[in-house]
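Supplementary Note 3. Input sequence used for the single-chain structure prediction.
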Amino acid sequence: MLGAGHGGAEAIILGLLAGINIIFFIGYREGYYSSLVADVEERQLRELIDALFTVPWYRPLFGALERLSAMCIQIALSVLVLRVFTRGNILWLFVAIGWHTVIDALAVYSVATWGVEISELIVGLFALLAILIIFLLRTREPEEPHTEPIPQAGPSGRTEIEVTNDMLDDSRYMS
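The predicted structure, written as discrete structure tokens, is reproduced below.
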């Protein structure tokens, strides 16, 4: 769950920051926040907002796809690191670090070389591989041993015992 927590917290933080920015940009475009921006920066901000609102509708979804892919990859990396402890072999740690490095390097290279769409496709393929790794490396729950059911209790068949003074005297604590 460490990978899911890390990826989930990252997704929530990035989502909140993006939401705050969108609210500000929409408010600024409508004229609400113009007094907060210096005249020198206003032209740059206006260009940024115009560019933001001319982006095709599907482009912002790449960020959501990237977060989903990152969460799958982070869970798989956590599973690899867990194997260091369950298998007692530190090689799994180096596999996780190496795989993380390859994914990050390839993502940065591909976005600079081929663009966002191809980069997200590559990261998505790594996410599919991560899901496969999660299922291949999961440990099966041990089967519980078969036990006979406990027999049902029948009528108690309790008989009343008459308590006598001699019985009470025998049960008292004596020093």
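Helices lie at 2-29, 39-52, 61-87, 91-113, 116-137, 165-171. The radius of gyration is 32 Å.
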